[in-house]
Amino acid sequence: MNTTSQKFVGKLKPFYIAKSSFPENKCILSVPIPRLSHCHIPLLLSRAIVSGLLLKLPLIHSVLRSLSSGPVPSLSLSFLSLLRHSGYMTLDNYSLSIALSATARLPSVSVGARLHSLSVKLGLVSDTFVLNSLINMYSSCSYPATARLVLDSAPQGACDVVSWNTIIAGYLRGGMPNQALQAFGEMAKGQVRLDDVTLLNALVASARTGTVRVGRMCHALAVVNGVGINCYMGSSLISMYAKCGLVEDARKVFDRMHERNVVCWTSMISGYTQLGKFKEAVELFRNMQISGMKADDATIATVVSSCAQMGALDLGCYVHAYCDVHGLGKELSVKNSLIDMYSKCGDIKKAYEIFSELTKRDVFSWTAMIMGFAVNGLCGEALDLFAQMEGEGKVMPNEVTFLGVLTSCSHGGLLEQGYHHFQRMSTVYHLAPRIEHYGCMVDLLGRAKLLAEAAQFIKEMPIAPDVVVWRSLLFACRACGEVGLAEYVAEKILELEPKKCAAHVLLSNVYATTSRWVDVNKLRASMDGGRMSKQPGCSFIEVDGCVHEFFAGDESHLETEAIYNTLLGINELLVAESLLA
After folding, report:
1. pLDDT for 66-108, tens place per residue?
2. Which of 486, 523, 528 is nearest to 508 (CA)?
3. Cα–Cα distance measured from residue 167 to residue 463, given in angstroms and rounded to the nearest whole number
4. Which residue among 32, 201, 299, 508 is least enclosed by CB atoms within 10 Å?
5. DSSP H or E stretch at residue 279
6. Which residues have C-beta within 8 Å of that of residue 8, sequence separation ≥ 6?
7. Cα-based angle 178, 179, 184 (whole degrees, multiple of 5)
8. Vertex 259, ends 253 and 262: CA angle to 5°?
9. Distance from C-alpha of 496 to C-alpha of 476, rounded to nearest angstrom
10. pTM for this prediction
11. Using CA of residue 125, residue 127, residue 130, residue 136, what is the dihedral sign?
């Protein structure tokens, strides 16, 4: 081996054409693919010429395809350009498709546009392979409208199912699920043959838009056409039904699957979590373990989120230990979920320990920790951490970060700092305040007993106040005994929620605070007459790793009698203590 060849040999797999396919040829260039650079292209070409490989077009295509799918796809374009300008190759439909694929991976719409012009000049634009590569290139470069123009201007018969699938996938990649569904409808009307990729893309679009009608149609088509509910189709159906709020339908699909992979289990667990069925999510995770299926980081993040919402610290610690035993939880998303879980379960020390050990932090890491300090009453620590985040300057805060900052100010009664950060949100970071941020400011003013200022703030809001904003002011009215304003606010809430009784309940509490019992009775009578029903409150309690769920007035628990007897005993002790005092 000469000195030049020795220089390029590495421990990784070298770039070569398989001898089994072409026994007369040896290695083109002994360079590991990850180490190839543009300086190697002339040497690669010269070796190919000497070996006589340029006489075999399939070999050239193989080299181009390998380079285009490697870590530096621009090498494929450089090699193709050198071949063409050296006169060893004319551009054909296959090499042009490879070049467009490499361009899509870069991505570079300027290079892609030049290749598009070349395809028109060479008369290759009507070729189905080239057409599909053009559509994919424009979609990958975030030009879905141009990709659609390519499809619409194609000659009759040039488009196939791959063309439409690429268009739909491009819309989904660009965050345009409604256009994806529209393209799916046009595809169906045009009697284009649908395949499993089409149905999978349509299910993703249905899930993102909440269009269960299209999702059900895809489900029916999969069954009728014998596509089969495999792991890919099953997980997509589960996700679609869950995101459309039909968790029972999602569970039916899950239960009827003959084979499930980790994605199917995670999709079902995630569906429960998204719809607030945290207990069911944890129970399914336990069933997953019993079945022998190993969880992945996505599963862990979802289960930890359910533990956080239930306040189930013991379960959360168990899942954390499960990660350590099975070598999971290395992903930052899992670490962020653990920070959030420990914060919401009250173990803020453990949450900060995980946060401190992070070698890399994203905006979700900072936000979870800031919000964790805020909800645990550590307002100073939350604001100090936000100052540290700004000081480092590596990660920019987002809207949720500022929600944590404003929550800290509200809970700590820090009026001036609250206004300061609220203004900096738009002036410094150019983030438009959402309704949640305005709600925090109303809550901040209400806690400071500045009811008139809070009412004026709501009046001057650039967006219409929602129920939460008005309810924050009504809570403040109850604390201050401000009946007149409370009645006005209650009317506003009733306009937004005419069938709910939350405003009546809060207003009744305001009357009770000021000893206006006649008004209390009238209000409760009007609630009974209007057949308003108050949704019972729900709470979770964890005992020995088992989560128990209770509703107000609930008697379904197996130990209801013992629970009520204990509560009565506690009440008697409290009454006795108060009499002694």
Report:
1. 888 888 888 888 888 877 777 767 788 999 999 999 999 999 9
2. 523
3. 36
4. 32
5. helix 278-291
6. 14, 29, 30, 31, 35, 40
7. 100
8. 85
9. 19
10. 0.74
11. positive
